Please model this.
Amino acid sequence: MASTARPLYQQLSRNIIAYPPEEAREMAFMLLDHYFGLRKADVLADKPLPLNRTEPDWFRIIERLNRQEPIQHVIGTTIFCGLEFEVSADVLIPRPETEDLVRLIMHDFADMTERPVRVIDIGTGSGCLAVTLARFLPQSDVTGWDVSEEALSTARRNAETLQAGVNFEIQDILNVPENSVGLFDCVVSNPPYVTRSEAALMDRNVLNYEPDVALFVDDEDPLIFYKAVADFAAKHLSESGICYVEINERFGEATKAVFDERGFTSVQVYKDIHGKDRSVRAAKK
Model:
């Protein structure tokens, strides 16, 4: 067994054969970081492995990766906005592009200090948005909704681990009782937006291991959740409130129109780092 980092890194990289070599190397770095606390620079410097380490079951880990199970599921965590979140098959793995929503919200609300910022995260999943906003906003009163009790259990554990005060509730945005909630300054949602017809284009590590209920929407009404979120926001945003949603790149202008039709006067589509339509910001004024 290797006693320093680089030989183990090379061994892991060679044995992860289900991915291109560059991806396999990045996974090997992630494994050494997670299990031994060795950063990429430590590996390249061939630092010693910790003497008191418990040796992981590398054979089992490699086997799972070569079945294209997401590495985030294998190690049980992922990083979002610099925070480590628990993930599992019950929740979507937070994506880097979703961090753009946090940046937009922080830009708009970071200087709001006269009272707590009232936030609701619709379809909270792992709680990555709700927990991050509860941690990063100077003052905040954050609620997270999801239809899955299993997802909410994960979100609650993340909030506890990261010491974030979030009120998580089981709730379906398609069936919100009238007058059941008050007003919010910020409504944010990353709802299901992948159409069933797009499934054939997706990687196995997403299709086989992430929850359908959080991914897919019927082709007949691909904007069903955006209509529901926009309806909710039109009723439950404060006078200066803002709604933020992550979107399917194919429906940028169509999603913008959903908010335009509901009386939002300032609606903008934002692109991600790849130049694809990725989010919509809708303000009442």
Summary: The chain has a mean pLDDT of 93. The first strand starts at residue 77 and ends at 80. The two ends are 63 Å apart (CA to CA). The chain is about 40% helix and 20% strand.
